[in-house]
């Protein structure tokens, strides 16, 4: 499977455009043209309670988006994710499946080798693995591949918190919990869809 951080970010932006669409708006530049609704991203196929939460992203000079979110709201969301992550029960020695592994590797290779605890909790919830398992996976990868100190750089999130990201991720945008959540949700959905398509094709070829 192939993935691109830019494509995932574009999909997250497309979802926000869809969510913010105003049905009463008609373009003044094309008054006679029929009203066109933005293309719906893959996340819209999720059940509503599983879709990423809406975030008020605004353009940032030199980057893709930024997020403004009140500290109490952010802390409440983080507590919710941590509580859900700690409540997940899974066998400690059970290996990750193909879908979970692809999502984890994409985060490790393209976003960060050092995800924050809220980001770890989010991945645990989305992938349905215990928080300890997700932490250990990243720790084991760093030990296996080296600490990667030179491969990640410090940067600030939308609320001024310091995170360590891959240079390509830093160039993409100013990151936030909400934007990371959207990227993970889209990546997980696309991975599941791709694996399902590959298995269906393989099954049809065998019959």
From TrEMBL:
<dbReference type="GO" id="GO:0005634">
    <property type="term" value="C:nucleus"/>
</dbReference>
<dbReference type="GO" id="GO:0003677">
    <property type="term" value="F:DNA binding"/>
</dbReference>
<keyword id="KW-0371">Homeobox</keyword>
<keyword id="KW-0238">DNA-binding</keyword>
<feature type="region of interest" description="Disordered">
    <location>
        <begin position="24"/>
        <end position="74"/>
    </location>
</feature>
<dbReference type="InterPro" id="IPR009057">
    <property type="entry name" value="Homeodomain-like_sf"/>
</dbReference>
<dbReference type="InterPro" id="IPR001356">
    <property type="entry name" value="HD"/>
</dbReference>
<feature type="compositionally biased region" description="Basic residues">
    <location>
        <begin position="48"/>
        <end position="69"/>
    </location>
</feature>
<feature type="domain" description="Homeobox">
    <location>
        <begin position="87"/>
        <end position="148"/>
    </location>
</feature>
<protein>
    <recommendedName>
        <fullName>Homeobox domain-containing protein</fullName>
    </recommendedName>
</protein>
<dbReference type="Pfam" id="PF00046">
    <property type="entry name" value="Homeodomain"/>
</dbReference>
<feature type="compositionally biased region" description="Polar residues">
    <location>
        <begin position="26"/>
        <end position="36"/>
    </location>
</feature>
<feature type="DNA-binding region" description="Homeobox">
    <location>
        <begin position="89"/>
        <end position="149"/>
    </location>
</feature>
<keyword id="KW-0539">Nucleus</keyword>
């Amino acid at each position: 499977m192939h993935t691109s951080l830019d494509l995932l970010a574009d999909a997250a932006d497309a979802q926000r455009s869809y969510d913010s669409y105003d049905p009463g708006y008609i373009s003044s530049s094309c008054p006679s043209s029929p009203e066109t609704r933005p293309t719906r991203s893959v996340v819209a196929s999720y059940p509503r309670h599983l879709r990423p939460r809406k975030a008020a992203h605004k353009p940032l000079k030199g980057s893709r988006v930024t997020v403004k979110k009140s500290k109490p709201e952010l802390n409440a969301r983080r507590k919710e994710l941590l509580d859900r992550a700690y409540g997940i029960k899974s066998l400690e020695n059970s290996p990750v499946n193909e879908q979970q592994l692809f999502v984890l590797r994409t985060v490790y290779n393209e976003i960060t080798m050092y995800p924050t605890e809220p980001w770890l909790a989010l991945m645990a919830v989305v992938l349905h693995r215990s928080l300890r398992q997700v932490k250990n996976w990243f720790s084991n990868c760093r030990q296996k591949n080296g600490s990667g100190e030179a491969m990640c750089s410090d940067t600030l999130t939308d609320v001024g918190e310091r995170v360590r990201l891959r240079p390509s991720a830093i160039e993409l945008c100013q990151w936030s919990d909400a934007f990371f959540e959207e990227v993970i949700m889209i990546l997980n959905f696309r991975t599941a869809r791709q694996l399902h398509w590959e298995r269906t094709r393989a099954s049809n070829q065998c019959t």
